[in-house]
Structures are given as C-alpha cells and as structure tokens.
C-alpha cells in the first residue's frame, strides 16, 4: 500500500485519510473545498475556546470568543450578548456545539440583514 | 474626510466602512478575523447557490451545493440527504438562510462525531 501522497494536513482530512493510509487518487484524499475549510474553521474555533477537558463552552468563554473572534459580526448582533447573558451562571452554564453553531448563525443572519 | 485606507475588500468589510468613507485607524476598518471570513464564506455560498432573484434555495439547488461544495462533509451526514428529500417538491420547496445554516451545522456535527 503506497504512502498517502496528500500534502494538505487538515483535521477533517486527516480523519478522512488517516496518516500513512494509502490515499486513493481522486478518492477520499481530495482537497477540502472552501466551504468545507470554512466550516472546519468554525468547528475548530469551538475547540480552541473550550478550556480544559470539557466538551462545552461556558458563557464567559463564549463572550471571550465573541470579543476576540467576532469583532465585526458581534456588533451586528445585539441579541447574541443577551443570549449569552440568559444562559445562566457565566462559569457554570453549558453551551454545547449545536448551540454554539446556532449562535454563529445568529451572527451570520445579523450581518446579512445590515 | 480622508480616503478609507483599508486594503482588504470583503463584503462585510465594505458594508462596515462603505466605499470612500474615512476609516478610523483601528476602528471599524480592521481586518476580518479567520472565523468571520469563514462565516462570510458560508453566507456567500448560500447566495451563489440561489438561482435567480429569489431569497431561498430549492431542494435541488441544495442538493447540488452538497455535491459540489461538501464532497467530504456531505458523506458524514446521511440525514442531510434525507432532510433535503423531506423538504418537498425539489423545484418548489423553499430553504431559507436559517435552515441552510442549520444544515451546514448538521454537516459540521456529523463530521465532528467521526
């Protein structure tokens, strides 16, 4: 079995081909599309923002993410701040990936309406 | 009022500064972050996939988008196909931006579980 000859090392890509596993030409080892890379960026940001071993964000971590990573989009979305405040205890409440994705959607919708 | 001296021309960016309007140093004219550019890519893809003047995707257009733009992520998500089929008439049913964003979230969740 030949060495996987893909150059691009992307998280989704690695899972798709696995390191060292032979990549079938044009098979699973194609380049990710721009939209897939964009989705991957939003996924990875969730993991970067999560502190420790847990699998969720706290309201404080989400707030930090909005300030650091959504300096423009975050402004389009008044409700995003309110949503974060309504989540409960800033250090205890849990924001799972699905809710995080929904909030990114709110930022997207907010920015589209402008 | 000085000419806006921003080099990066991004859709959200233009709306933020507007062409010709003075950009306040470090104000609204900063560079978009990677996460904002990623969200913008997913937003723009919705508009590219919409045919004609309408503001929604048909199931057929969404199916085409999945085949062309989610060759990898689309595989993680059996239900995405079913969701598209359950939407009704392939040429008539309407997929608004919010539902499109939710489906992208399904692709993201499907790929995270792998």
Automatic annotation (TrEMBL), chains A, B:
<dbReference type="Pfam" id="PF01023">
    <property type="entry name" value="S_100"/>
</dbReference>
<feature type="domain" description="S100/CaBP-9k-type calcium binding subdomain">
    <location>
        <begin position="35"/>
        <end position="75"/>
    </location>
</feature>
<dbReference type="InterPro" id="IPR011992">
    <property type="entry name" value="EF-hand-dom_pair"/>
</dbReference>
<dbReference type="InterPro" id="IPR013787">
    <property type="entry name" value="S100_Ca-bd_sub"/>
</dbReference>
<protein>
    <submittedName>
        <fullName>Protein S100-A14</fullName>
    </submittedName>
</protein>
């Amino acid at each position: 079995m030949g060495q996987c000859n893909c150059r691009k090392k992307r998280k989704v890509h690695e899972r798709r081909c696995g390191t060292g596993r032979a990549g079938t030409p044009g098979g699973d080892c194609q380049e990710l599309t721009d939209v897939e890379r964009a989705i991957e960026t939003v996924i990875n940001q969730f993991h970067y923002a999560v502190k420790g071993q847990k699998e969720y964000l706290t309201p404080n971590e989400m707030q930090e993410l909005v300030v650091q990573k959504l300096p423009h989009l975050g402004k389009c979305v008044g409700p995003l701040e309110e949503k974060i405040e309504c989540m409960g205890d800033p250090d205890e409440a849990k924001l799972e990936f699905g809710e995080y994705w929904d909030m990114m959607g709110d930022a997207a919708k907010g920015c589209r309406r402008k």
